[in-house]
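>> received
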Amino acid sequence: MKKTYLLAVACYLAIPIVVMGGGFAAVIINPEWAIHTAHYTRNFHLLSAFKTLLMLGSFGLSAVLWLLMCYGLVRAKQRSRLWLACACLGPLGIAVLAALRDDDPAPGDAWQSFVSRLGRAARIAWETAFCLAAWTLSYQAMVLLRNVQILCQSLATGATVAQIVAQQNTMSGMYAFTEGNEVMYLVSLIYLFWPVAFNLFARLRHDLRPRSGRHPLADEAKP
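>> returned
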């Protein structure tokens, strides 16, 4: 795989770290710490502003990482920078960028070799099936994660699963937003990692394929 593509994957993996890190840092900052200082009002506003800045900064940095990830995909395929407009489409934009033809494929890139052999109709069918599979798999993974979290919370607090589900239903909007983001993140992750996994599998298959010809020790082993 090209270094620019791997850099794009690294930028995408860093997005949840930045968002969760900024959110965690903002949560632990309590503006009421200023109550123990001589200038309470000024320090309270400073801490509040710093807390807000951390939140906005984490979201801003994640947006920059998203753009860098899209730029890495476009650069890896040697396509026009106008394709960066697809970054506004979220996971659908990643699907478009992933489906772009690579104008300068790397030597030994099994994935690009595979898609280049597909005809137009077969390529459309493949991309449609892969998109449906990616969204379905991501949704099922989100449901599984939700059930695991509910079970862990039930074991930790002693509340029943029904009670936890009822409590979450009172904040259904917030949970729906969070779970929607999880699904979209997983969809993009599948699109990014699929070519990498395909090439690794092809490389492993090539390495494990038995070599043709007689083994050099075969004749010596004969009596």
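>> Residues 1-104 form one domain.
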